[in-house]
Amino acid sequence: MPTRRTQGRGRRFDSVLDTIGDTPVIRINRIGPDDMTFYVKAEAFNPGGSVKDRLALNIIEAAEADGRLKPGQTVVEATSGNTGIGLAMVCAAKGYPLVVTMADSFSVERRRLMRFLGAKVVLTPRALKGFGMYSKAKELAEANGWFLASQFETPDNADIHEHTTANEVLADFAGERLDYVVTGYGTGGTVSGLGRVLRRERPETRIILSEPANAAIVASGYVNTRNSAHQATESHPAFEPHPIQGWTPDFIPFVLQEAIDKVYYDDLIPIAGPDAMTWSRRLAAEEGIFTGISAGATFAAAMKVAESAPKGSVFLVMLPDTGERYLSTPLFDGVAIEMSEEEWAISRSTPTAQMAAE
Ligand code: PMP
User: How far does residue 342's CA lie from ligand 1's centre (Å)?
Assistant: First the structure.
């Protein structure tokens, strides 16, 4: 007899879109400090595999509701992947054509995933950085009368995190201690949405923001220029390419500016790419939690804070996506295809089905 039994979710879903959100908060049992409690919020449980499903759904539904998006109108967006995958899923489910612009430096599985979900992917040269793909999307929208999703500027971004992500955190920690919530930023939607709610409802909870050590654009104190539509009009001088995909574009987005202006974070922690990889690998290999590079970076930031946090502290770490999205990236460097010496020895230790020696 199995020791576990499930009940079903007690409902049937009318659309895959209704399965977005309500991601699980999971305790870390093996890799955290013994005298503290670490939880992660695993956004990979969203149907598109990332936190961006939330924003994609709200961008489309808010625009449908107020008439900015017409039936059958093409949607266009610049995205490093997860927003594109989320938008592709939402557009497929609702019947909108989608065009995504993306720098050719991002992982190839992201492009193929979006195309698999029915989107068109227009690549832009990596030398033009995030700003290049962003300008391309804007230009295509203007030239064709397409609906620009505007994840970096739209209020529909932080709004959905306020109403779903943050709400879920409140509910899952109701009556329970929560000392730190740790997140990175791409658009800033997650931190701005969390900040609005946690500052009001859980003022004792410290919010930790993190960014790549070699692209510490918030820490630099310089805010890039923006136009009247709140779109960045220059690449941030403190930006350098970094391996933490989905984090820190080469400008401070308007959506993130709210978190800066309203001081929604108590500490800002720089994380180097290799530390992000280390913690993503440890989450997978030692906790069974398969998650991306930015998740490893966020976990690394939490571990830094833990070094000087009081004993007994309770952490919640945002894990934005699934590790499956990074098979072709440095996250999987060193993960062999061929058998190791140890694996050969295991094979040779019994007589059956041994591989021929190379
Ligand atoms: N990590 C990954 C992998 C992402 O795709 C994103 C979104 N770009 C983030 C983190 C950051 O989330 P947000 O845009 O809400 O700041």
Answer: 38
CA of 80 to the centre of ligand 1 (A): 9
Same CATH topology for 16-46+155-332 and 52-148: the answer is yes
Q: List the catalytic residues.
A: 52, 294
CATH architecture of 16-46+155-332: 3-Layer(aba) Sandwich (3.40)
* Spans of all domains in the chain: 16-46+155-332, 52-148
* Paired residues of 50 in beta bridges: 321
DSSP 111-159: HHHHHHTT-EEEEE-GGGHHHHHHHHHHHHHHHHTPEE--TTT-HHHHH
CATH class given for the domain over 52-148: alpha beta
Number of the ligand 1 atom closest to the C-alpha atom of 294: 1
Query: Could you tell me the pTM of the whole model?
Result: 0.96
Of 83, 294, 318, which is best to mutate to test ligand 1, by the most ligand atoms within 8 angstroms of its C-beta? 294
The CA distances from residue 175 to 132, 162, 172, 201, 245, in Å, are: 46, 19, 9, 12, 35
The closest alpha carbon to 171, from 13, 313, 25, belongs to: 25
Digit-by-digit pLDDT tens for the chain (358 residues) are 999 999 999 999 999 999 999 999 999 999 999 999 999 999 999 999 999 999 999 999 999 999 999 999 999 999 878 999 999 999 999 999 999 999 898 878 888 999 999 999 999 999 987 778 888 999 999 999 999 999 999 999 999 999 999 999 999 999 999 999 999 999 999 999 999 999 999 999 999 999 999 999 999 999 999 999 999 989 899 999 999 999 999 899 999 999 999 999 999 999 999 999 999 999 999 999 999 999 999 999 999 999 999 999 999 999 999 999 999 899 999 999 999 999 999 999 999 999 887 6
Which atom belonging to ligand 1 lies closest to the Cα atom of 295? 1
Residue found under tokens 């003022």: 203
